[in-house]
Predict the structure.
Amino acid sequence: MNDISTEQKETEKLQTLKKLAATVYLCQALTFMLAGFPLLLGVAINFYKRNEVQGTWLESHFNWQIKTVWITLAGFAVSTLTLEMGVGFFILIATIVFLVYRITIGWFALNDDKPVKKW
């Protein structure tokens, strides 16, 4: 009887963490409307709860989301610095496409209860 209770608690914990990962993907998507603030909020959630997902299939999502933020922030910074040279706009577009791609791939994998495949 105790094993069922422990298993049920673990399942509930994973469901809560899955909802948290979905919230972070939503934050990343809202970045386009709210000038980047949700991107930072989402990564803060990732870092705060990172230890709780270690060893689960959700760990790949948290790592994916964190890596997405760092690369996106770097892309935004480089595009800003190179805007005057004429390349910044193209780097910005590539960064936005990258962000949309990472949100989409992660979201679909999360909804299928699968880890994100690395690239």
Notes: Helices lie at 2-30, 37-53, 58-81, 88-111. The chain has a mean pLDDT of 92.
